[in-house]
Amino acid sequence: MRHLLSTSALSREDALNILDTAEEMSGVATRHVKKLPTLRGRTVVNLFFEDSTRTRISFEAASKRLSADVMNFSGKGSSVSKGESLKDTVQTLESIGADAVVMRHWASGAAAQLADSGWTDCAVINAGDGTHEHPTQALLDALTLRRGWADRSGEALRGSDLAGMKVLIVGDILHSRVARSNVWLLRTLGAEVGLVAPPTLLPVGVETWPVTVHYSFDEALDTAPDAVMMLRVQAERMGGSFFPTVAEYTRRWGLTDERMARLEARFDGVSTPMVLHPGPMNRGVEISSAAADSVQNRVLDQVANGVSVRMAVLHLLLSGSRAAEPAAPSLPHSADRFSTGSSA
Ligand code: CP
C-alpha cells in the first residue's frame, strides 16, 4: 500500500491488517510515555482545505505518538488565497521535508488526483474529499464495531471481521463521504448494510450499491440491527431544500428519545445495539440531546480509536519506505567537550 485514498480499493486482507495494527497501537495510549520511535525523522503534513476538529487533531496526535514531525497547513490564511495551486502548494511542502500528506479537500477525487499526478513522492492519505470518501473514519468505525461485535460473540479480535453483523446507516447519505467509505468497508468485512434516508438524500444509482434501502427509520428498526450509525445533516453542502422542515426531518429520520428507547429495550443481557456518530453531532436534528448524551461515550470511543487507526495507517505507509540514509555527520572536534563519555 503506497497511499490510502478510499475503502473501495481496500482488500479484506489490507483492512484487517490495518485494524489489527490499530489494536496494537491502542496500547500506546495507556502507557505513561505515549510514544513509539517508529517514525522518528519522518515528517507528516496535515493539509486541510476544509474545517476539521477530530480528523486533523487525531492525525497530529497519531504522528506525534510515532515520533514523526508534524506540519499543519490550513487552506485559510495560506497562499492558496492568493491563487496558489494544489500542485505548487504540495511541492512547496515537500521541499520543506514532507514524507506524507494527509489531505482534506472540498473536491471529490482531490486526493486521488494528487496521488496519481506525479507532482509529489509523498504518501497521500485521504482525510475526506468532498462527498466521495473518508477512509480513516470508516476504519475507526470498523475498529469500534469490531470490538463490540467481538464482545458479543466472544471471538478473538485479531483477524476477525464483521460477518453477520447488521448495520444501519441513517440520514444524509447523499452528501456523506462517511457513508460511502463505510458501505464499501463494511461489505468487505462481511457486514449487512441498510441505508435509511428520505429519497431526496439518497444518491443517484444507490440501487446498484450492495445495501438494502429503507425510507422509514421505524420499519428499518424492525430488522433488529446490531448497530445504528447516525449521520450529520450537512447543511453546508445543501444548496436547496431537501426536506420540509428540521422538525419533520427529526420526527421521521432522527434518533429521537422514543427510537433510542426501542434500541435500549433490545438489551440481551450483554449489550444493546451500538449507536455511532462520526461527529460533529447536530443535537436536536439527527439525534435528540438525550440520545446524544446517552451515546456520547461510544462517540468518544470512536474518536480515541481514530488515533489508533491513524497511527496504524501512518506506520504501515511510512515505516517500510525509508530510503537508504547517509551516515550521520561526524561532530566537529570542538563538540567533543560536550561528550558525556568517561575519559581516561
Ligand atoms: N468525523 C470527522 O471527520 O470529524 P471532523 O470534521 O471534526 O474531522
Automatic annotation (TrEMBL):
InterPro entries (alphabetical): Asp/Orn_carbamoyltranf_P-bd, Asp/Orn_carbamoylTrfase, Asp/Orn_carbamoylTrfase_sf, Asp_carbamoyltransf, Asp_carbamoyltransf_Asp/Orn-bd
Enzyme class: transferase
Residues annotated as transmembrane: none
GO biological process, one term: 'de novo' pyrimidine nucleobase biosynthetic process
Taxonomy, superkingdom: Bacteria
Every Aspartate/ornithine carbamoyltransferase Asp/Orn-binding domain range: 164-316
Known catalytic reactions: carbamoyl phosphate + L-aspartate = N-carbamoyl-L-aspartate + phosphate + H(+)
Domain Aspartate/ornithine carbamoyltransferase carbamoyl-P binding span(s) in chain numbering: 2-146
Sections of the chain in a coiled coil: none
Binding of carbamoyl phosphate, residues: R54, T55, R104, H134, Q137, G279, P280
A UniProt-annotated Pfam family: OTCace_N
Keywords assigned by UniProt, alphabetized: Pyrimidine biosynthesis, Transferase
Known EC number: 2.1.3.2
Signal sequence coordinates: none
HAMAP family linked to this entry: Asp_carb_tr
UniProt family annotation: Belongs to the aspartate/ornithine carbamoyltransferase superfamily. ATCase family.
UniProt name for this protein: Aspartate carbamoyltransferase
Organism in which the protein naturally occurs: Candidatus Nesterenkonia stercoripullorum
